[in-house]
Fold this protein.
Amino acid sequence: MGIVSQEAIKQFQALMDQVDEPLKRTFQNVHQGYLLETFGRFLKAREWNVSKAHKMLVDCLNWRVQNEIDNILAMLTFLESYSSQKPIVPTELYRSVRDSQLIGLSGYSREGLPVFAIGVGLSTFDKASVHYYVQSHIQINEYRDCIILPSASRKYGKPITTCVKVLDMTGLKLSALSQIKLLTIISTIDDLNYPEKTNTYYIVNAPYIFSACWKVVKPLLQERTRKKVQVLSGCGRDELLKIMDYGSLPHFCKREGSGSSRHSQNGAENCFSLDHHFHQQLYNYIKQQSLIKEPVHPMKQGSFHVDVPEPAAEGTQIAKTIESEFNKYGNGNGLSDSLDDLKINGD
């Protein structure tokens, strides 16, 4: 770490020592004992400007307090909003979210970084309200940061504070346009409150039209984000095996042409499925936490609402560009596959 970086972190820490107690408490859940790495992430996200990084972190901590993010891993049982107030069976709700918001932990890289798989092309987000998908995304972020990363750090004997993501573009269709608003919300939450948590994005099973869309979107991304993105050939198996063992490959990368699927004959193999050990562990953890905390701190009823700031101009421009490219290639060439999510601007 250079002299400039060390001095910036020293100034940053001095500023954070002055924040009020409620923010200090939630900050512990953010840094998990890795202060330098946390300061470094926020500084990097603000081009090493101490004042801007400090404001970003304080805004993040206020967001956490105001939205009870520290309790989100205890929020499992809900009552349906705007209905007859009949309880939802948590497992049914959770499974429906998992079947339509395809994300999971497939394993770890050889360096110990968690490998998160994301089914960009086949995620439909049509089984629950927007608020449940936002809650689910934040819960996975919090479980990653509070449980997965600290555990990996202990196992590998070094600070592990980031992950890698494998984005499966199989099945991408023009219908994904309807999800850009939700994906922009999720992206904005990540950009502002979980900055620099992803080391590398690997894009696999990209459709033919991806390269044309990528050329348009790529210049809109910040340079540090562009450097993180690697577009791999086919399912990416051979390239990914250079950084992880076969057992850690997402199920859609284990053989050419396998693609991604919402359902698999082997639920334990499909890292998107509720039957996968990662989601079973996460679900059981949330269930246990809800039983522990509920008597002390009653959970809100109804779907969980998180205050979402307006997306930055960059994010809005990217969303509009993606929508324009979808329409152009869909209408002009009669193609149904195109580029969707790339909700990677700034993470």
Remarks:
- Confidence is low (pLDDT under 50) at residues 79-85, 260-265, 295-303, 332-346.
